[in-house]
Amino acid sequence: MGRRKLEIKRIEDKSARQVTFTKRRNGLLKKAKELSVICDVDVGVIIFSSRGKLYHYCSTNSLTEILQHYQNCVAMGPGAQTGVRGTREEKSKYAGLLKSGELLQIVDRELGETCVDDLTVTDLVHLEKQLEDALIQIRATKTHLLLDSISTLHEKEKILVEEKRRLEEKIAGSKTDGRTNKMIMDLNVIADSQMTEQ
Predict the structure, then answer these.
(1) Domain K-box: where (predicted)?
(2) Is residue 84 part of a domain?
(3) Tens of pLDDT, residues 126-173
(4) pLDDT digits (tens, 9 = 90+) for 116-126
């Protein structure tokens, strides 16, 4: 037997509608992720539940970037879309991590207006995963910045060590010059005293 054809209309039973929404939402987000990976394209999906809850997926971790790209394409007109896209590597250079402002907006949206008791386990798991992913990205950025700072300090240290070495050589050279001058003066004094004795 094949699959039965489902008539597309609003589901009247509230609990059945919620179950269908959850299943189809997860299926849609899964398909969006697969499309992104298999075809190497940028995908952004935004879903609002009947209660106004936001669910989204973004293949570049920056939904703002995809929306900006969309707005640029729409603003340029239908024929101008070819050649606008760069390579994935070029875009990944600019594709930032979840910005702290975006993260705060997500948390505020999920927890600020809604009572935590209203959230389903799936919603909480989804929010927890977003927070964990954002925390991992923030830690990676922090580590990267610290390593850059350490590298810069090592470069400054090398420059200072080299400058110190040059100054020590200069001081040693001036001491040698001072001894040479003293020896010349001593020889001149001896020579003068010998000339006066004669």
Answers:
(1) 87-177
(2) no
(3) 878 888 888 888 888 888 889 999 999 999 999 999 998 888 888 877
(4) 556 678 877 88
pLDDT of residue 151: 92
What's the token pair of residue 163? 């400058």
Average pLDDT, the chain: 75
Residues 6+ apart with CB under 8 A from 80: 73
Residue 186 domain-assigned?
yes
Cβ within 8 Å of residue 195, ≥6 positions away: none
Residue 40 Cα distances to 49, 62, 69, 85, angstroms: 28, 16, 16, 12
Length of the chain, in residues: 198
Residue 184: give the domain boundaries: 102-198
| Phi, psi values for residue 85, rounded to 5° | -75, 135
**Collapsed DSSP state (helix, strand, coil) of residue 130:** helix
- Give the integer Cα–Cα distance in Å for 167 and 179: 18
CA-angle at 152, arms to 146 and 158, nearest 5°: 135
Reading the block at residue 172, the tokens are: 């040693």
**Domain assignment present for 79:** no
Number of domains in the chain: 1
H or E stretch at 145: helix 121-197
